[in-house]
Design brief:
Blueprint (H helix, E strand, L loop, with lengths): L2 E6 L3 H12 L4 E7 L2 H11 L3 E5 L7 H9 L9 E6 L4 H10 L3 E4 L4 H12 L7 H12 L6 H6 L5 H11 L4 H8 L3 H15 L4 H10 L12
Parallel strand pairs: 1-2, 1-3, 3-4, 4-5
Helix pairs in contact: 2-3, 3-4, 6-11, 8-10, 8-11, 9-10
Length: about 230
């Protein structure tokens, strides 16, 4: 199955370079590009790609706002998987991207092989950031703000076992590791994860980690897997 991609960056050379790299892969096809966030929204909604590579800093509308608008559609509506790109490794950008619903974050100076791998990872429905890195980042911001009642109420639809699985996801455990910890089959864990994502309208594990902290299910400084 071919992965369709839209590239959004205000630098034409960056768009051309990324497009050449990705189009050279047998399983990836670039189906559009845009130079700013506003144009990106129109292009993405028309092309409906699997993955959007979205620069953070752009004129007219920045990448974070464009990502928020693309990912704030009603449940069940088309929403692409968005991977943010930037020259700057700044925590605020990463957290803002994750809150917006982005599936990953990659620096522009990453190796070409890393970019290709990142597109495949995000297209497969996984978060690009390593769970331990994501968790450490989210903890930093979670310490600065209390859990919100609205986010806490979202967890009421989960069964006790689903809450336990969400806690282990926030701890950075893979499905196989969760299965071992709970003494169940990996397919059972996959079923629980699917139900959690459906009930909470989550796209991937990165969003699950954000929600686990912002809802108060996990407290900053605590070991989620314990």
């Amino acid at each position: 199955m071919t992965i369709s991609v839209v590239i959004v960056d205000d630098q034409a050379m960056v768009r051309a370079g990324f497009a050449a790299l990705l189009d050279a892969q047998v399983d990836i096809q670039v189906v559009g590009d845009a130079a700013d966030g506003e144009r990106a929204i129109a292009v993405v909604r028309q092309a409906q790609p699997d993955v959007v590579l979205m620069d953070v800093r752009m004129p007219v509308m920045d990448g974070l706002e464009a990502a928020r608008r693309l990912l704030s559609t009603s449940p069940g509506a088309y929403r692409p998987k968005v991977m943010m790109l930037t020259t700057f490794d700044i925590d605020d950008y990463v957290y803002g991207a994750l809150q917006a619903g982005a599936s990953g974050f990659l620096l522009k100076d990453a190796l070409p092989a890393d970019l290709v791998a990142a597109v495949r990872v995000v297209a497969a429905g996984d978060a690009l950031l390593a769970p331990s890195v994501t968790r450490r980042l989210i903890e930093k911001f979670a310490r600065q703000r209390p859990a919100t009642p609205d986010e806490s109420l979202r967890l009421n639809d989960l069964t006790p076992r689903e809450s336990e699985v969400l806690r282990l996801i926030a701890g950075g455990l893979s499905n196989a590791e969760i299965a071992a910890a709970l003494f169940v089959a990996e397919q059972t864990v996959k079923t629980h994860v699917g139900r959690i994502f459906s009930k909470l309208d989550l796209r991937d594990r990165a969003q699950a980690v954000v929600l686990a902290y912002e809802s108060g299910l996990i407290r900053p400084g605590a070991d989620p897997a314990s």
